[in-house]
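Re-run with default settings, no changes from the original entry. Doing this only to confirm the output is reproducible before filing.
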Amino acid sequence: MNRTRMKKIAFVAMVMVLGITTSWASSEYLAANEKQVLLDLYDSTNGERWTKTWDLTSPIASWQGVEVENGHIVGITLFMNNLDGVLPESLGQLAHLRHLNMAFNNLTGVLPKDIVKLENLKTLKLEMNRIKGSLPEGLGKLQQLEELSMFNNFLSGPIPESFGELKNLKILNLSSNNLKGLIPNSLGNLTKLEVLGLFENGLEGAIPQEMGNMSKLKELVLANNQLGGDIPEAFGQLASLKILQIQNNRFESFNALQSIDKKQFLVFDTDDKTLSPYKKLDLERTRMADTKFEDIDDNE
């Protein structure tokens, strides 16, 4: 092998090593730049007493439930990990975050106002906590969101009209809270929605006709509210619906349900006893089914 060729090979190898080193250093630096947000989370939720805590002296990528990609934090999964406290306001600085799962903990306080800045977020799971306050109108800005689950908290106020802008949403579960007011007509824009859980709130008024646009809806749980009026005729368009639970409301007419194909349902609960051909599920089992989520911690 001549000397010129050897020099070229050596040069290419050096470039490759430098490239790898630079990439690693950049990744570590960028991740470290977001480290303070994780430290804020650790401090504000009693991190020393988590079921699986973090070794703060180790690289961020090794921390339980933290996913790092290209030098940025893209996922935080701390499901059922004994988090006790409030979510830090700095959480909104994780601009690359795609998945946030802190379900089944003891989180309190309100949602950080800057959570609406997480525009890359696809999954937001905070169910089975003690979070209070209203849902920010700005959550409608999270255009990438596919799942929003906050059932069994202490949320109050109305469902924001802006939720109709979450065009990629597939799961929306806000059951067992203290939500009030009307179901927004804008929810009819969620044509990719497969699950809508609003069980056990204080919602009132009529079900919007626009909900008939949810052609992919498989599960609709509206039981235990104060909804009234007639069941919309548009429900006949919900050909994918398998579970419909609307019992314990104040509906005046169930006539529209007569036109729905009875064979499509796995579960059908209503206060109209004349619709007996449908299968039924008692209320206690309904609540259990509505709040059962099988989260799997990939880091175990």
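The chain is about 15% helix and 20% strand. The first strand starts at residue 66 and ends at 69.
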